[in-house]
Specification:
The complex is a heterodimer of chains A (419) and B (145). By secondary structure, chain A is an alpha/beta fold. Chain A contains 15 helices and 17 strands.
């Protein structure tokens, strides 16, 4: 603990949400004519700050060129920017080496890369992969496909009524037959924060590898891949204020070195001949073809944006939003929150009486409120709760208590229509 | 008995919806209309009669009454029910050939065109197409009969 001069002094600076909001052009807009936008669909994608938008524009206006191998000036500038983004991201997630950061199209591609490249050498018939009932389809389907390929079995950790993992069931499943544990850090549908650090340690104790789907975590919390000791960590740029089409697969150096390439092509080779081709070193081995250059650079700018904020203050603000929204939503007659785990991020899935989520979402949209409705790509989880889907309000650091009030007032207004 | 034509029925709906100057009244009315939807029998709520591509579940079944095509439907979402009720009001109990050739435009004119957009994935477009496909099949049956 640092020496405290005044124990009553706040640990963090108050979070200036108005100043942060002002950096997001879309949040200044209106929809359906004159309705100010209340954007509560952040678990699907986040809005982008000026820093990211301006950086992408600057890249195209001043630096556009293909990266690597170019002898000319612009190519060097673009390469420096692209590789500089990789360094920023490595620092952001505290990777031991910059080359452990592989650029992908997003979380889904990162998971598929591991399933495809590592899969066959890691698993054989009779082995098991463990996922949970609350996983996003993209952390289920690639493993199902791998299981089919190698004859392995997919095991599923059940979820409690509140939306927490059944930890005993998990430890009971672990054994020497376990090849890999693939788990979401934060549930996109419920908001549950899973105890990934302990889960990773328990997986390692039986000799299994651990992959973390971090699609919902890098925007809410500091991620330290070395402290987590995860073998792989995947996330998407667009959910953390960066561009779409870019994401990251972090993997431990030794594992990535041992894995065969995912795709072949330019930029990933050492030497090509018809007698045989040798591959480039990390990270390029996994980045075939011209990469998503402005995406990577834009994601670097998103990291700059996040690092410019006090993440403790951000988390305190989001916790306040979650608590306030949970309280306020519960004042609505017949409203039921799906996902009430102890450890939660600022995601609230709910149902209002018997109203269909689609009806609720459609009417909220008329009042300028953007939520997501449906199964949130977690059909097994919806089956678990016996519901077709939910209405999901997911909050980001730029949301306010005022947004919560607008949501609650809107729900109160439409409730008579839908009952 | 004389059947009002598809354009006449569309016109009537457009006039009704002109009475509402805000979205709230419009949706309230739409939901009310959904409550009068000629419901499909539960026995037909099967995959065969399900319309794909909707966020809510939708079932639609055609039938023949005299020389006309009639539809029954249901959905688990109220707004969707209202939208189908409007479609049925326009296209049900019409000569199959007229339905097959119909160019359904009224949804845009009553300010519900967002339900037709591709981002919705609610399949209103596929509902219209399915209704027309059924009608086309019936019209062909008649020709060959």
């Amino acid at each position: 603990m640092p020496t405290s001069v005044d124990s009553a002094a706040p640990r963090t600076q108050p979070f200036d949400v108005a100043a942060v909001r002002a950096q997001f052009p879309t949040l200044q807009g209106t929809v359906h004519g004159d309705q100010p936008l209340v954007y509560l669909d952040n678990a699907a994608t986040s809005q982008k700050p000026d820093m990211v938008i301006d950086r992408i524009r600057a890249y195209y206006a001043e630096e556009n060129s293909n990266v690597h191998r170019g002898v000319h000036r612009l190519s060097q500038v673009a390469t420096d920017a692209y590789e500089g983004a990789r360094e920023k991201i490595a620092r952001f997630i505290h990777a031991a080496h910059t080359h452990e950061v592989i650029f992908t199209r997003g979380t889904t591609e990162g998971i598929n890369l591991v399933a495809y490249s590592l899969g066959a050498s890691l698993l054989s018939a009779g082995d098991e992969i463990i996922v949970s009932e609350m996983e996003h389809h993209s952390n289920i389907v690639p493993w199902q496909m791998l299981c089919e390929r190698v004859g392995a079995t997919l095991r599923v950790i059940p979820v409690s009524d509140a939306g927490a993992l059944d930890y005993t069931a998990y430890t009971d499943m672990l054994g020497e037959q376990t090849g890999l544990v693939a788990i979401g850090h934060i549930s996109n549908a419920l908001g549950t924060i899973n105890p990934v650090q302990q889960m990773i340690a328990d997986a390692h104790a039986v000799g299994a590898l651990a992959l973390i789907d971090g699609a919902q975590s890098t925007q809410h919390t500091r991620v330290d891949v070395q402290a987590l000791d995860c073998d792989f960590f995947c996330f998407s740029g667009h959910k953390m204020f960066g561009p779409t089409g870019i994401g990251v697969l972090y993997g431990k150096e030794a594992l990535l070195n041992a894995m065969p390439p995912f795709q072949g092509g330019g930029d990933m080779i050492d030497r090509v001949s018809f007698e045989g081709t040798t591959y480039d070193a990390l990270p390029h081995k996994f980045e075939a073809g011209t990469p998503h250059i402005e995406g990577a650079i834009g994601l670097g700018a998103a990291v700059d944006f996040l690092e410019g904020l006090d993440m403790d203050a951000v988390q305190a603000h989001e916790t306040d939003l979650l608590t306030y929204a949970t309280e306020q939503l519960q004042t609505i007659d017949g409203l039921r929150i799906i996902g009430t785990a102890q450890e939660k991020a600022s995601v609230i899935s709910f149902l209002m009486g018997d109203a269909h989520p689609y009806d609720v979402g459609t009417l909220l949209d008329q009042m300028g409120i953007a939520v997501r409705t449906g199964h949130h790509c977690t059909e097994p989880l919806m089956d678990r709760y016996g519901i077709p889907g939910t209405v999901r309000a997911s909050f980001a650091l730029y949301n306010t208590r005022d947004d919560v009030d607008r949501l609650v007032q809107a729900l109160q207004r439409i409730q008579p229509l839908l009952s | 008995m004389e059947t009002t034509s598809i354009p006449e029925r569309e016109e009537a709906i457009i006039n009704e919806f002109m009475l509402f100057d805000d979205w709230m009244g419009k949706y309230e009315y739409l939901i009310e209309l959904g409550k009068d939807l000629p419901l499909i029998e539960d026995a037909y709520k099967t995959d065969d009669f399900r319309i794909r591509g909707c966020q809510s579940q939708v079932w639609l079944r055609p039938d023949r009454a005299n020389s006309h095509v009639v539809y029954r439907a249901d959905s688990d979402a109220m707004i969707t029910k209202g939208l189908i009720a409007l479609l049925i009001r326009v296209l049900s109990d019409q000569p199959p050939a007229a339905v097959a050739e119909a160019d359904v435009q009224f949804l845009e004119e009553i300010g519900l065109k967002e339900h037709l957009s591709s981002t919705r994935k609610n399949g209103l477009q596929s509902m219209v197409q399915q209704m027309k496909a059924y009608a086309r099949a019936l019209a062909q049956d008649e020709q060959t009969a």
